[in-house]
Protein 1
Amino acid sequence: MEIDEKHLWKKRIALDIDGTLWDFYGPFFEFYNNKYGTNYDLTDFNCELAKLLNLTQEQLNEEFREFEGTAYCEDLPLYPNVSEILLKLSQKYFFVLITAKDSTHREVIRERLKRKLPKFDFPIYFSGDYVGAAGGKDEICREIGCEAIIEDNLGNALSCANSGIKSILVNRYWNQGGEHENLVRVMSWDEVLDLFP
Ligand SMILES: [Mg+2]
């Protein structure tokens, strides 16, 4: 990972992308329901999307890639105040993005980040390249020295918490339950700011 020298002294925080920075699953369900005449909504979702839709991970990736080429995906809305809060925190912290997607999504994600968060130039890690092998988000966090992660996926947040990484779980319909001494649930991004004084 190449980090500009001016950021080297900063503490590192890992950031998930979909469902954490911007709404992804709402627009995805809209796309999916229209394509297949189904009726899924966010209240059906519990972080295990492939299981819910009865797809293999590869089939789900295929659906994601198709979704990414449609109008549903053109303007995924950032959650409130994400940009302002990241900007404030970035005076002291350096953010590294870690998505569970694989790197076939790299260009689309980069493009969207450029449009949505133009003031940042984040390094991006794709833990989806390591499915079934070493390289989960907890391992990536340890490898690059992130002391905390901000996530919407309960499983990822718990595995990072188990590895001693401070896990901030942004409250969503799909990530209820789960407790750990290293896990903090926040109701909104505004609360994230208070955790990193
Ligand atoms: Mg996510």
Protein 2
Amino acid sequence: MLLQLLSVLWEALSLQVILVFLATFLLVADYKKQIRPRNYPPGPMLLPLLGNMLHVDFKKPHISLQKLTEKYGNVYSLQVGSMRFVVVNGLHLVKEALVHQGENFVDRPSSPGIQGIYGSSGLVFSNGLIWKQQRRFALSTLRNFGMGKRSLEERIQEESRYLNEAIEAEKGQPFDPQSQINNAVSNIICSITFGDRFDYHDSRFHKLLHLLDEACHIQGSFWSVLYDVFPTVMKHLPGPHQTLFKKWGQVKSFVREIIEKHKEDWNPSEPRDFIDAYLNEMAKEDAPSSFHEESLLQSTLDLFSSGTESTSTTLRWALLYMAIYPEIQAKVQAEIDSVIGQSRQPAVDDRDSMPYTNAVVHEIQRISNIVPANSPRMTTKDTTLAGFHIPKGTIMFANLTSVLFDKDEWETPNEFNPGHFLENDQFMKREAFLPFSAGKRACLGEQLARTELFLFFTALIQKFTFQAPKNETLSREFRVGLVLSPLPYRICAFSR
Ligand code: HEM
Ligand SMILES: *[C@@H]1O[C@H](CO)[C@@H](O)[C@H](O)[C@H]1NC(C)=O
Ligand SMILES: *[C@@H]1O[C@H](CO)[C@@H](O)[C@H](O)[C@H]1NC(C)=O
């Protein structure tokens, strides 16, 4: 997607790829669109046709972007081909854009690739009334499941037992925890949307997760960019983008089948899950117009794709940090032992009496910074930010990295330091803690994610001590795909 451009910029690209990229833009760039509007945020001089293509060193994109911020300040503009975007830095301006001017920056940009996969229904890529209706419904449904017969908390506790069993089975030998964690986290979404979890060995489950993973991988790749720039030609050419549409097609038929099953044994007076609740909504006489089967499918998929990788990646960072900082892990264990003990499972209510563990979970989210430039937004009308004119339809990246590592907000921004969230041993909220973004279009799953992170993490640290394998050092290096994630690592989990 064009939207993944920033992560593509971030990834080091090979020379060959850059050449194709340049050639493509040379062909399609529209020179007229490159004239800057008046009072537009500053940025590097635009080259004919190329825009700012050459201002970004593809081998070290973060360094060239850092230089741009230093040179042009907290709001600057870049242009690639005919695509124009602004980057906003620092807590103050990010909040100004996302919260105080929330309405002006609430849309998401689209692109041919996004249209092909998502259409304009659903939660993540819809805009306007459709987005409002779908978001309101999803939020209230998730909230109701928190209070329903089997609460969200119970579902997560149950899954947590399965996760611990799967990790126990590794018997303290080095292993990569990715698949166990991913299974556990995506089962929570399965349970909410489909009504049931899958066994970790279920082959249908594996197939679904594998398809999603592949689809996300290709979507974050250069081929998607190419498709977005050149849809009419690319439509007829072979390449991974064709596979992408095929994979998404398969994911969709998987979910469609589950929806058909739900229709067969649906009981309107007892909705079991998100799909049942949605069918109820569709059946209402005064149902809002955006509720139909296509959007049921899309909203379900959106919950899946936004809810799984983000949370499971954060948990992978969590185990990594615990193994790198054994003294912090030991303090979490001491707090668990005194508040919960070894005989019962952690519960949400424990969080208030566990300031240290709570601070550690927050610090893990801050430092792992998994959505570094937020999801892209687009202005709904002409607006003014920091005195600059930003026309309607401009793509805006709120640089969450610049907030989570803001030198004016954090005592030791680059250090893993749970003290950032503690004052006199009590938990302390911080304004610059924005891993879920802020404002009207902030993460829809924040409550769910926070509950999952606390319960899974605490249950794991209650039962295990995580350590680097003998003679191996663990690295904090990351890679940037759809989210910023640790490089695959191996770890040992010793039962306590
Ligand atoms: C640690 C876990 C998570 C992090 C760090 C995270 C972060 C984010 C961020 C930064 C955004 C973009 C918000 C914006 O544009 O301002 C977002 C959007 C979204 N997230 Fe999450 N998220 C997490 C977990 C989840 C979960 C578990 C769900 C499942 C319900 C979820 C569902 C969504 C949805 C549906 C959107 C799109 C909202 C919209 O466009 O209205 N997220 N998330
Ligand atoms: C975001 O902020 C960080 C930290 O200030 C900076 O290193 C990075 O270059 C910024 N990214 C962009 C796209 O401006
Ligand atoms: C670790 O390294 C030491 C010294 O290099 C070696 O004797 C030992 O066998 C290694 N242990 C493992 C588990 O590889």
